[in-house]
Specification:
Beta Polymerase, domain 2; 7 strands
């Protein structure tokens, strides 16, 4: 007869020792009329679609507009779309948005992914979702930056990547 090992009981408020927890939950089986189907679970910004492929210029612009509209749909503040095609070779557009809280910033990033994944696919990568101060959603030609207010003010990407101001003429002395 096989011997069953009991796991040590956890103290209140503490996880049981030797219990390994994964960062992403595994899709759970859903019972529907006697059949087992696996419904994909979303863990934050994760997507079940393949990543975005190469896009034409018009598709990149459409993606940027869709990202901007999705951020506005989640009540993002100060949403700006910057055309950086002449300034950088790694992307065509930046979409900048501000969330009032960590939860709203995550919701904005999730909303962008959900709005774009049907037509364009999943982002190539995402960063900062756990911390939430600056969430980056990278679609290749379009990069979405979702900030908390103090982080956006500190990094001020509009100043770095916006239209350069006319250089002041120096006076000859």
């Amino acid at each position: 007869m096989a011997r069953k090992h009991k796991r040590p009981a956890a103290r209140p408020g503490k996880a049981a020792p030797n219990v390994r927890r994964s960062a992403r939950p595994v899709a759970r089986a859903a019972r529907t009329h006697g059949e087992t189907s696996f419904a994909p679970q979303r863990d934050g910004i994760a997507s079940t679609r393949s990543t975005v492929g190469s896009l034409s210029d018009s598709d990149a612009l459409l993606l940027a507009h869709r990202c901007r509209d999705a951020a506005l749909g989640k009540k993002a503040e100060d949403v700006v779309m910057l055309d950086i095609r002449k300034l950088a070779n790694f992307a065509d557009y930046f979409v900048l948005a501000t969330g009032r809280s960590l939860i709203q910033a995550r919701a904005i990033a999730d909303g962008v992914v959900e709005a774009c994944e049907d037509r364009f696919g999943a982002p190539i990568r995402t960063e900062g979702y756990g911390e939430g101060g600056w969430i980056l959603v990278d679609y290749g030609p379009v990069i979405v930056h979702v900030f908390l207010p103090q982080t956006r003010e500190f990094y001020n990407l509009e100043r770095l990547w916006g239209k350069p101001l006319a250089a002041a003429k120096r006076k000859a002395s």
